[in-house]
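Re: that chain you flagged

S.,

Sorry for the slow reply, it's been a week of failed gels. I finally had a moment to sit down with the sequence you sent. For the record, here it is as I used it:
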Amino acid sequence: MNRSLDDVRCIADRAAHAVPADAAEAIVLSHYSALTRFAGNRIHQNVAESDAQVSIRAVLGSRTGVASTNRLDEESIARCAKAAADAARHAPRDADFPGLPHPKQLSIPTRAPLLLDAYGPQERAEAAREILDQSAARGLVAAGTVSVNDTITAVANTHGVDAAMHTDDLRVTVLSMNGPNASGWASYYGRDARGFLPAQIGSHAATIAERSEGAVELAPGTYTVVLAPEAVADLLDFLGYLGFGAKAFAEGSSFLIDALGSRVVDPRISIYDDALSPATVGISFDYEGQPRRRTPLIEGGIAVGPVTDSYFAALLDRDNTGHALPAPNPYGPLPLNLEMAAGDTSVEDMIASVDHGVYVTRFHYVNVEDPMKVVLTGMTRDGTFMIENGRLTKPVRNLRFTQGVLSAFSSVGAIGSQRQLCGAEESAVLAPALLLERWAFTGQTG
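Prediction finished late last night. Pasting the structure tokens below so you have them in one place:
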């Protein structure tokens, strides 16, 4: 089981004040995770692990140094604190470093740790079996995971910052295989276990796999597409990584350069970062202990601005939006709880409005071609279908795309009325389905 919130908070405070430096900061992450993995229609792995780590940042004038350890006894923390101070002593001066931030009022929701009790080994096994049964009953083969993560995050510094919060989440994936060339995908991510219906998720993946048999080739070209929420979440995640961070903005590599206050996408699109939303997961403060808040990034199609931390807020003379990552990192501040505002159209109505197009369940192996224009390339996967005369018809062999996200988001036909929370790399994205009028497929992948 995980440590207590008070224990983790005390470790962070003790570590920050153990540093022989002008100022210091400590981040403690205490994590417990449990995973049940299945493949070939049977459970084959059930594991649990726990770990805790402290990262200490020492400040000497305008020099900073960081050291970390996962040994949290007093002697080990003292050695780590000394190592951080030694690193700072040998680091170059940074004239732009504003110093560590001072405490601000935090809004920390009270969240009782629920999921570890609700999804112990037996409950995870039962959920996996319900998922598997949906494929097995149809002669299909399923693989996937049911996992629970329980994390306590604490940040303290010698200026009085004292922030600590418990978070947990449930993550479920299922891939149903119908022979070597047909597959279907479904997933769940979130804290509200009431929204996780194992049989329903298993059935959804199996149905897609059944419908994917006998896929046909589709000629390269520009098509109208309906993207399911997981496909949209990938695009939003890349927007956040490439364009919504203050470091990219300061370095001139963000699409927001010379675009603030201008329309960059369809006016129906609004994108926010909101760690306080009850629909998402994560902590309500950043890794400097500063409050996160609902931060508009694109509002009504208009570019609003990047997210910041204390360093880039001072450098750019902007407000600190509370998006610091643990120091040091190569990315600067990033949005970790992106969401696109919902529209008013069901997926069924989107499909019904398309005469000739493509439905995409999700993307795979997405990479960047042009960061300034957010041009991405990648592949469809696990459920791609033709839309003909307002109906899903033939399955399509997986396609490669090369497409600018901003360009695609400027040709919106409709935005979904329902949103799904999707787990991205170290972040959560709340995304609706999208009907896009123009999407460039450049070839087949298999």
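What I noticed first: The chain has ten helices and 17 strands.

Talk soon,
D.
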